[in-house]
Each structure stands twice: as structure tokens, then as C-alpha cells.
Backbone:
């Protein structure tokens, strides 16, 4: 009897061990028993293979895990192919989970991931249809920013990790060059005017003394704040950084520089992606990915023309009212300006009353004004939102070395462990590009109630798969930020008519983008035709317009996502107001739109209706 009991106990233990091993094997290599475990596996497979992402979000550091902070992400062509095969495998497993047995959260998570993986796989034949080095982004711009703003130095180990990462620039830039050569063989070559700007940017970066380079100065700034490291060790670490910049970083950049100097001989000045292999179908594909809709290029183009006309009519009404006012800040308004608001905006942008001085003092005043506007809006958020992110947001200047090719402002999300806030970078390359009447709208878009509020809340979501804390869909994120600009005006934050003109000008700008992006890539406009149309219909500085048009050239479809996303959110709000009437609650509406994180617009609409 005792022997039998022992046998049963051993059998039970063996069975338990077998079940645990089976669960573990299926979790790691096959189909996990639960879809929630599969979601986590997909996220961590990607995250653990991307040390730069891990350093950026700092999701592991709070557990004392930092093995990734001395490494750079593999961007080799072989890695790209492995990722594609992983997407195919994961999509097959994901579809094998029946939606009928899932919770509501799991169903939407499944739909979101299916959309993402499916579009990744559909884009296999277009995986090289981009320009991984251009005037805006690419390793030559991204790596200095990553090292300066993401890699943190709080102790000796993190300082040495920084140096190790610098030593790996050569390997990473070699992988980049392999990608460039594949594209060259496929005749996927940037326009000549883009190549010239890339060359100029690299030359500017490498012509600096290593001690003047942002890779050195940012390291020194961080290191000098660390009290636990002695001066002798600090000096030694600084010298190592200087040596790596000279011996690893600069040669990496010079190899890309040499490549682009030769590549220019094969380039032309055609701007649109129609010139690429199967370019017309590629544009339809990328437009779907960017807008997360099935809108055709022609539909997007027509939508843009319609919105441009509508917004300019709103501007005309404001100008008519301004003309009737006794005090107009000394700015005369003619009937010609009312008929063509762009003429008035052009004049307004040159009025010194709306501009900061172009000197250092003026730029400092501009940053302080941004901070004041931010504080005012933060104080008003509880009137519009029941939830506000815990993460803070700060305002900094765009680093001087890259301000010439960067947009007027952009946002970087906070770290998950609270060690780095969200950051709004303001471009101060020319104060004529930062009129006071446009500052509020730009800040609202990039910080609160725009990007920072949306992304901050998404990162803090509970009871959702981890991938949904970080998932980004351009139409959702940029659509929300553009909606946030309008929301601020609706809530009475910027009732000044000039600021309202600034808001409408920004919305007009996004509408013009629909026309220009499709014009370049679908209707085969030249770069010069696109610039001419934008100048005529926006009133922005020519330098700003050139920078923007060249952005659309290297990021096809991306600029279309803003307006498409905003219109969808307004459409859903309109339906809710019509259905609920007096019971409509703006805070609750925002809770629904923001409460599940970013997703394709088609899924957002379905989620809201359910």
C-alpha cells in the first residue's frame, strides 16, 4: 500500500513536471496555451532583439536588468529577413486562436496584431522601397540623438557602456551600407537634391573637432553630474570617448559619405516614389499603412482639396470680423487679403510684433514662452480629461547640428522607469519661422493635449498586452494630435483671433499635405511644383516649405495620416453627440478614444461602436 502511494506521488510529480515543461516549450517555441502569453512572447521576442529600444523605454532597468545598454540594434539585411519570417510564423499562430473564446480586450489585441503583421507581410516586395539615409533621418542623424538623449550615464558602468556603443558604430554603419547597396542594385536611389543634403550634413558632422561633437559634449555633461566617479577616472573616460569618436565614429560616417558621393552620379531629381520599381502600387500600399484606411490616392487628393477650400473660407470670415474691429494691433486688412488669406498670413509672419528677436536672447524668450503656454494648458487639462499621464514633459531646443533639416517641432516619449520625461524639441534655426501666433497650436500638438498626453496615457495602460503600451499607428497618433489643436480652441484656450488664425493655418498646412503628398507620389509633381503649391496655399516661410516637401519625398504617405486621423476622431465624436445629445460627456468620449492605446482607424471605429 505504501509502495503504491509512493508510486502515485512520483507519478503525480512526474506529470506535473511534464506539464510544466510542456507549457514552457509551447510558450517559447510553439503555440502557447493562452493568447495572452502569445502576445507577451511576440513583444519580448522583438524587444530583446532591439537593445536601442530597450534603452529608450527603460522597461527592464527598474528590475536592475541592463545587459542591453552596451549594444546596438542589428540592422543587417539578414536580420530584416528573419524578422519577416517571424511575422509570417506569428500571424499563422495568431489566427489559430478562435476569437469566440477571447475576452473583449484579447479580441481587439488580436485584431490589432493581425493588422500589423498582415501589412508587414504584404509589404515584403516593398521592403527596400525607402531611403534609409536621407536629410531627415537615418543613422547619421539618429545615432547622435540616441546617444545624447537616450543613453544615460549615472555610474561608471553606464559610462563604459557608452564607450562600448561608440566602438560598435563601425559594425552598424557597415550593415547600413549593405542595405544601401541592395537598394542601389534595385535602382532605389534617393533624388540628387536629397543626396546633396545628406553629403552636406555628414561633412558638417565630421568636420568638427571630436571635443566639439555632440557625442562628446553630451557625454561630458552627463558624466560631470556623477559624484561617485573620481576626477582621474572621469578624465580617462572622456579621453576614451574622444578616441572612439576619432577612430570609430568618424570613419563610419566617412564610409557613408564616400558612398553617397559616388551614388550621386547615378541619381536623378525625380521626387515621387512612382519612379521606383512598381512604384504606383507601392504608394497605394504605403498610403494604406500610413492612414490605416483603404482610401485611394485620388480620394486622398480630393479630400485635401476640399479641406483646403473649407479652411480658407473660415479664415476669410475671421479676417472680415478683424477688419470691423477698431483695434487690429496696427495691421491693416484689405479686401484683397480677405479674398486671399495667405496674403494676410504672409504679412502677419513678417510683423515684428509677432516675432522674437533672432539673437540668443530672443531664442531664450521663445523657449520661456513655450514653457508658459505649456503650464497654462496643463492647468486646464482636468476640464477636458479624467485621466492625465504621470510622466512629465519638458521643452528643449533642437540640437543645432541638425536643426536645418528638422521640422519646426517634434516630440520624444518618456522612459518607462521615470528617468527621462517626454521632451518637446523646438526648432529655433530662424525666429522668422516661429511667429507667436502659431506657438500655441504647435505646442498643443506635440505636448498636451496632443502627443505627450496620448503617448503618456498609453504607456501607463494596465491590463493590456505589453505591445499595446508601445504600439504606434501614425493616423491614430497624429490624428489625435491634430484633433488636440482644435480641442484647445473649442475649449476657449486660444480665443485670440490671431492665435485662431495660427490654428487654422496649421490645419490648412495638414490639408495641403494631402494634396502635395499625393501630388508628388501619385500625380507625378516635381519638387518645385509641390513647393509652389505649398507656398501659395499656406503662407509659411519658403525654407519651411522646402524642408517639408523634402520630408514628404522621403516619407511617402506619412503626411496624409494627420488629417485623415483627425477627421475620423471628429466623425466619431459627432456620432456620439448626435446619439447621446444632452448626455454626451466630452471626458468620457476621450476616455474611450484614448483608453485602449493606438490602433488602426478601422479598428478604432469598430471598438467605439461596440
Residues:
Amino acid at each position: 500500500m505504501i509502495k503504491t502511494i509512493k508510486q502515485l506521488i512520483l507519478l503525480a510529480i512526474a506529470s506535473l513536471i511534464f506539464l510544466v515543461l510542456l507549457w514552457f516549450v509551447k510558450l517559447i517555441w510553439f503555440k502557447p496555451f493562452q493568447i495572452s502569453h502569445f502576445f507577451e512572447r511576440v513583444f519580448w521576442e522583438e524587444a530583446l532583439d532591439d537593445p536601442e529600444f530597450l534603452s529608450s523605454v527603460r522597461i527592464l532597468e527598474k528590475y536592475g536588468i541592463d545587459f542591453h545598454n552596451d549594444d546596438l540594434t542589428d540592422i543587417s539585411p539578414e536580420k530584416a529577413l528573419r524578422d519577416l519570417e517571424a511575422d509570417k510564423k506569428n500571424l499563422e499562430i495568431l489566427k489559430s486562436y478562435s476569437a469566440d473564446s477571447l475576452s473583449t480586450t484579447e479580441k481587439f489585441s488580436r485584431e490589432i496584431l493581425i493588422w500589423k503583421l498582415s501589412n508587414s507581410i504584404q509589404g515584403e516586395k516593398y521592403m527596400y522601397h525607402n531611403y534609409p539615409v536621407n536629410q531627415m533621418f537615418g543613422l547619421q542623424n539618429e545615432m547622435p540623438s540616441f546617444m545624447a538623449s537616450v543613453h544615460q550615464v549615472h555610474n561608471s558602468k553606464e559610462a563604459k557602456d557608452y564607450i562600448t556603443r561608440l566602438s560598435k558604430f563601425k559594425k552598424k554603419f557597415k550593415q547600413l551600407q549593405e542595405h544601401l547597396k541592395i537598394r542601389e542594385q534595385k535602382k532605389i536611389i534617393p533624388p540628387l537634391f536629397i543626396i546633396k543634403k545628406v553629403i552636406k550634413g555628414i561633412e558638417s558632422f565630421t568636420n568638427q573637432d571630436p571635443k566639439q561633437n555632440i557625442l562628446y559634449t553630451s557625454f561630458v555633461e552627463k558624466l560631470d553630474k556623477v559624484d561617485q566617479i573620481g576626477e582621474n577616472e572621469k578624465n580617462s573616460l572622456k579621453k576614451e570617448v574622444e578616441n572612439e569618436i576619432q577612430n570609430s565614429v568618424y570613419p563610419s560616417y566617412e564610409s557613408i559619405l564616400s558612398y553617397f558621393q559616388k551614388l550621386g552620379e547615378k541619381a536623378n531629381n525625380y521626387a515621387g516614389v512612382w519612379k521606383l520599381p512598381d512604384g504606383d502600387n507601392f504608394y497605394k500600399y504605403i498610403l494604406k499603412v500610413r492612414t490605416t484606411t483603404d482610401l485611394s490616392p485620388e480620394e486622398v487628393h480630393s479630400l485635401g482639396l476640399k479641406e483646403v477650400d473649407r479652411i480658407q473660407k473660415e479664415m476669410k470670415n475671421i479676417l472680415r470680423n478683424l477688419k470691423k474691429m477698431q483695434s487690429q494691433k496696427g495691421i491693416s486688412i484689405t479686401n484683397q487679403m480677405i479674398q486671399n488669406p495667405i496674403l494676410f498670413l504672409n504679412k502677419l509672419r513678417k510683423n515684428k510684433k509677432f516675432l522674437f528677436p533672432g539673437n540668443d536672447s530672443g531664442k531664450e524668450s521663445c523657449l520661456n514662452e513655450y514653457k508658459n503656454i505649456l503650464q497654462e494648458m496643463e492647468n486646464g487639462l482636468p476640464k477636458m480629461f479624467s485621466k492625465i499621464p504621470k510622466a512629465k514633459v519638458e521643452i528643449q531646443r533642437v540640437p543645432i547640428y541638425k536643426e536645418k533639416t528638422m521640422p519646426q517641432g517634434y516630440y520624444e516619449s518618456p522612459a518607462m522607469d521615470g528617468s527621462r520625461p517626454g521632451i518637446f524639441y523646438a526648432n529655433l534655426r530662424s525666429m522668422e519661422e516661429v511667429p507667436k501666433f502659431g506657438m500655441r497650436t504647435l505646442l498643443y500638438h506635440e505636448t498636451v493635449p496632443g502627443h505627450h498626453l496620448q503617448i503618456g496615457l498609453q504607456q501607463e495602460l494596465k491590463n493590456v498586452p505589453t505591445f499595446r503600451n508601445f504600439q504606434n499607428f501614425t493616423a491614430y497618433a497624429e490624428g489625435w494630435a491634430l484633433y488636440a489643436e482644435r480641442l484647445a480652441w473649442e475649449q476657449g484656450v486660444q480665443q485670440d483671433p490671431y492665435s485662431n488664425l495660427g490654428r487654422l493655418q496649421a490645419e490648412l498646412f495638414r490639408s495641403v499635405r494631402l494634396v502635395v503628398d499625393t501630388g508628388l507620389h501619385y500625380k507625378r509633381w516635381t519638387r518645385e511644383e509641390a513647393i509652389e503649391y505649398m507656398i501659395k496655399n499656406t503662407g509659411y516661410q519658403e525654407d519651411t516649405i522646402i524642408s517639408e516637401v523634402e520630408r514628404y519625398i522621403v516619407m511617402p504617405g506619412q503626411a496624409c495620416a494627420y488629417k485623415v486621423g483627425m477627421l475620423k476622431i471628429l466623425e466619431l465624436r459627432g456620432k456620439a453627440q448626435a446619439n447621446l445629445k444632452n448626455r454626451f460627456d466630452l471626458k468620457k468620449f476621450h476616455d474611450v478614444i484614448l483608453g485602449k492605446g493606438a490602433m488602426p482607424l478601422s479598428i478604432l471605429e469598430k471598438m467605439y461602436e461596440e
In short: The CA atoms of residues 170 and 252 lie 5 Å apart. The mean pLDDT is 92. The radius of gyration is 26 Å. Strands lie at 393-397, 409-412, 422-426.
